[in-house]
Write a structure and sequence with these properties.
Layout lengths: L1 E2 L7 E6 L7 H14 L3 E5 L3 H6 L2 E4 L26 H13 L4 E6 L1 H14 L3 E5 L15 H22 L2 E6 L6 H9 L4 E3 L7 H13 L5 E6 L7 H12 L3 E5 L11 H19 L2 E2 L1 E6 L2 E6 L12 H10 L2
Parallel strand pairs: 2-3, 2-5, 5-6, 6-12, 7-9, 7-10, 8-9
Antiparallel strand pairs: 1-11, 3-4, 12-13
Bound molecules: 6-O-phosphono-beta-D-fructofuranose (F6P).
6-O-phosphono-beta-D-fructofuranose (F6P) binds next to loops.
């Protein structure tokens, strides 16, 4: 973690970046209200790094945070600005930020967003505190990210519905969930939804293993099965898995890809509380002069973790969760 002189901290910027996640608005609210309570002015940066490059800022006050805690998406909007990979673009962004009087910022996003924030500190000593917001839960330094619980619950509701129709028709289903290169959503949804097998990048399952599991279930009288596939599972995604299972075993699997449905909707209570805690602490940490770091939740406690221990660090699904899923599916 780095330190800066926080005695001149008067105006705080806040932005959301990368894929939106339910609970981001609760985090924006926590950041804004905590900063205002401490006498700061708050400016929202529209669409993350895109808004920084275009100089698009809007003043946020206590009232503008009314009725946002329950809303999905992000009221500041978000984006993926490829141009920000260039140092000259980052220099232009800092010019815009300084012209707007912004002294420090809170970045709500994932690994890519934090990489941009880290570069702004290294190249321009611009102080930023990160708040982990992504449905994927693939951020090191925190046990859980904002949006993950909501995404799991949305996917779980879909699986429960699929189970009704799968059981009625004696069918095999493969449900594909999001997660980019990680299997956190697939694992939690698999356990909570009683899936027979999961396909995740961290703990690859072969087609033969999956077929074997389905066959053993059938021998015990199971008439329908649900397999959950993480989108980042290699090789192949849900349709490829279905084709391979058909070719190898003759089982006709129905495929359901949940996609962006998992990213929308009202955040769960757990996500709203997490976002409120991590957002408020981000402001408190900046007030203490801490920056180039992220707030996180570890074993129930709010912590501040240096970006050096977060960016590019792999967080993996606990193998015992995968074993648990398999033993309970027996
Ligand atoms: O990182 C969140 C996430 O939803 C991933 O799970 C997914 O792979 C990706 O974003 C999709 O991104 P986009 O909405 O830009 O297609």
């Amino acid at each position: 973690m780095q330190r800066f002189d926080a005695s001149k901290l008067k105006t705080l910027g806040v932005y959301t970046s990368g894929g939106d996640a339910p609970g981001m608005n609760a985090a924006i609210r926590a950041v804004t209200r905590t900063a205002i309570l401490h006498g700061m002015e708050v400016k929202g940066i529209v669409q993350g790094y895109v808004g920084m490059l275009n100089g698009e800022f809007e003043t946020l006050d206590l009232r503008s945070m009314a009725n946002v805690i329950q809303r999905g998406g992000t009221i500041l909007r978000t984006g993926r600005a490829l141009e920000f990979h260039k140092p000259e673009a980052r220099a232009k962004a800092v010019e815009h930020l300084r012209a707007a009087g912004i002294d420090a910022m809170v970045c709500i996003g994932g690994d890519g967003s934090f990489t941009g924030a880290h570069a702004l500190w290294k190249e321009h000593q611009f102080p930023i505190m990160g708040v982990p917001g992504t449905i994927d839960n693939d951020i090191a330094g925190t046990d859980v990210t904002i949006g993950f619980d909501t995404a799991v619950n949305i996917a779980l509701e879909a699986i429960d519905r699929i189970r009704d129709t799968a059981a009625s028709h004696d069918r095999l289903f493969i449900v594909e969930v999001m997660g980019r290169d990680s299997g956190f959503i697939a694992t939690d949804v698999g356990i909570a939804g009683g899936a027979e097998e999961i396909f995740i990048p961290e703990n690859p399952t072969s087609i033969d293993q999956a077929i074997d599991r389905i066959k053993r279930g059938m021998e015990r009288g199971k008439k329908s099965s649900i397999l959950v596939a993480a989108e980042g599972h290699k090789p192949g995604r849900a349709y490829d898995l279905a084709e391979a299972i058909l070719q190898k075993a003759g089982f006709d699997a129905k495929v359901c890809i949940l996609g962006h449905i998992q990213r929308g909707g009202s955040p769960t209570a757990a996500d709203r509380i997490l976002a409120s805690r991590l957002g408020a602490e981000a402001v408190e940490a900046l007030r203490r002069g801490e920056c180039d770091a992220m707030t996180g939740l570890v074993k129930g406690a709010v912590v501040v973790v240096p970006f050096d221990n977060v960016i590019g660090v792999k967080k993996s699904v606990a193998p015992e969760l995968v074993s648990l899923l398999r033993s309970l599916a027996n």
